[in-house]
């Protein structure tokens, strides 16, 4: 199954801006990989909360539409809230 997430490039980085994004219902994330510059992104929480519950989300290649350009990635790590059903941060690697 293929998954597609709409995302935007994130210009502000740091703890304060990430907290503001989470409070607004967004998820900060990063895409990194060998030989490429890391890209900080942000997307809506509702876009990932349902698809991350599927088992093949962690093993399949995902498509992130980043500012109109499609990027193939794989989920590397995900940070969740301690007791709320919230995703706090996601690390992706270039596929």
UniProtKB/TrEMBL annotation:
Large ribosomal subunit protein bL25 L25 domain ranges (all copies): 5-92
Keywords for this protein: Ribonucleoprotein, Ribosomal protein, RNA-binding, rRNA-binding
Gene3D superfamilies: Ribosomal Protein L25, Chain P
Source taxon at top rank: Bacteria
Pfam families in the cross-refs: Ribosomal_L25p
SUPFAM superfamilies tied to this protein: Ribosomal protein L25-like (SSF50715)
Composition bias, Polar residues: 1-11
CC per GO annotation: cytosolic large ribosomal subunit
GO BP of this protein: translation
Known function: This is one of the proteins that binds to the 5S RNA in the ribosome where it forms part of the central protuberance.
Family the UniProt entry places it in: Belongs to the bacterial ribosomal protein bL25 family.
Subunit structure: Part of the 50S ribosomal subunit; part of the 5S rRNA/L5/L18/L25 subcomplex. Contacts the 5S rRNA. Binds to the 5S rRNA independently of L5 and L18.
NCBIfam families: bL25_bact_ctc, PRK05943.1
Alphabetized PANTHER family for the sequence: RIBOSOMAL PROTEIN L25/GLN-TRNA SYNTHETASE, ANTI-CODON-BINDING DOMAIN-CONTAINING PROTEIN (PTHR33284), RIBOSOMAL PROTEIN L25_GLN-TRNA SYNTHETASE, ANTI-CODON-BINDING DOMAIN-CONTAINING PROTEIN (PTHR33284:SF1)
UniProt-recorded name of the protein: Large ribosomal subunit protein bL25
Recorded name of the encoding gene: rplY
């Amino acid at each position: 199954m293929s998954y597609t997430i709409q995302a935007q490039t994130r210009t502000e980085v740091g703890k304060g801006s990430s907290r503001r994004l989470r409070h607004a219902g967004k998820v900060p994330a990063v895409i990194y990989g060998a030989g490429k510059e890391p890209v900080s992104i942000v997307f809506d929480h509702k876009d990932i909360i349902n698809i991350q519950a599927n088992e093949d989300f962690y093993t399949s290649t995902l498509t992130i539409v980043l500012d109109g350009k499609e990027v193939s990635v794989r989920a590397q790590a995900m940070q969740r809230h301690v007791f709320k059903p919230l995703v706090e941060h996601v690390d992706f690697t270039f596929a």
